[in-house]
């Protein structure tokens, strides 16, 4: 089984308009090197209104950053005012779509069933889902972390083939660590990521578990990326706030130089 190539993803959330997106990418173009792209895969998950601009910039400048989205609908088209179809994203060369982010689940009421439909729709359109899971602070304190994460992962991958699971990305993002400056310790993050991999093995077999990439997300910064990435079951980072600053995001991508 070849080693898993880490994936560092910048989730811009509802930040950076298309002008700001271009200037951020222009800085990253100079900061990141061929060696970086050989060592890690990099994606940026821009707001929908930026994606065409991001595509034009990255393709015309030949920058090896993959285009990402933050969400999509599960249907192909139809009367879903305000929604974006996965096929529309695929047409813009989107490679990765974040699905079931805790902000989608908590603020917009997305259910495990909807998240599973989205995962399937992303695959059906030739893109790779990044399936998010993670517990609240109350769940962690109530020792309900494993149950919560297991339920979310189970629902998200149940309908998939072992080959699809091998090709996808799962992001473990404890909700209490998102945007709070409070990172899970690298031991805690590793422990839950290893648990997720064991659940994947039970459900989809050892090969799928050995291949699936599992990211950690929650207050990842240039100063803590190397320690998190050194953990055997952490294969990348899903970065929020620190991804808005090109220098800081580049430091995370270049964690191996720290
Ligand atoms: P922060 O890095 O701002 O904590 O956000 C993490 C996140 O939610 C990425 O999807």
UniProtKB/TrEMBL annotation:
It holds the Pfam family TIM. Keywords: Cytoplasm, Gluconeogenesis, Glycolysis, Isomerase. Pathway: Carbohydrate degradation; glycolysis; D-glyceraldehyde 3-phosphate from glycerone phosphate: step 1/1. The keyword Repeat does not apply. One of its GO terms (cellular component) is cytosol. InterPro entries: Aldolase_TIM, TIM_sf, TrioseP_Isoase_bac/euk, Triosephosphate_isomerase, Triosephosphate_isomerase_AS. It is an enzyme of class 5 (isomerase). SUPFAM superfamilies: Triosephosphate isomerase (TIM). Its EC number is 5.3.1.1. GO terms for biological process: gluconeogenesis; glyceraldehyde-3-phosphate biosynthetic process; glycerol catabolic process; glycolytic process. One of its GO terms (molecular function) is triose-phosphate isomerase activity. NCBIfam families: tim. PANTHER family: TRIOSEPHOSPHATE ISOMERASE. HAMAP family: TIM_B. This is triose-phosphate isomerase. It comes from freshwater metagenome.
């Amino acid at each position: 089984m070849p080693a898993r190539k880490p994936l560092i993803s910048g989730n811009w959330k509802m930040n950076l308009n298309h002008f700001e997106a271009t200037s951020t990418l222009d800085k990253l173009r100079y900061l990141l090197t061929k060696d970086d792209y050989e060592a890690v895969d990099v994606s940026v998950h821009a707001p929908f209104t930026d994606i065409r601009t991001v595509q034009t910039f990255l393709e015309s400048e030949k920058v090896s950053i993959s285009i990402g989205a933050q969400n999509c609908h599960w249907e192909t088209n139809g009367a879903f005012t305000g929604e974006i179809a996965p096929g529309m994203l695929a047409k813009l060369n989107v490679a990765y779509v974040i699905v079931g982010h805790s902000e989608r689940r908590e603020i917009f009421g997305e259910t495990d069933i909807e998240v599973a439909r989205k995962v399937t729709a992303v695959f059906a359109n030739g893109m790779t889902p990044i399936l998010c899971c993670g517990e609240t602070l109350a769940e962690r304190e109530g020792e309900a972390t494993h149950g919560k994460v297991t339920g979310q992962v189970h629902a998200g991958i149940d309908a998939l083939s072992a080959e699809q699971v091998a090709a996808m990305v799962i992001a473990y993002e404890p909700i209490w660590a998102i945007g709070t400056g409070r990172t899970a310790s690298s031991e805690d993050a590793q422990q839950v990521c290893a648990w997720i991999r064991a659940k994947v093995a039970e459900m989809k077999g050892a090969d799928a578990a050995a291949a699936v990439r599992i990211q950690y997300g929650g207050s990842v910064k240039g100063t803590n990326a190397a320690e998190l990435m050194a953990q055997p079951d952490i294969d990348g980072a899903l970065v929020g706030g620190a991804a808005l600053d090109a220098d800081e995001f580049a430091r995370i991508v270049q964690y191996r130089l720290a």
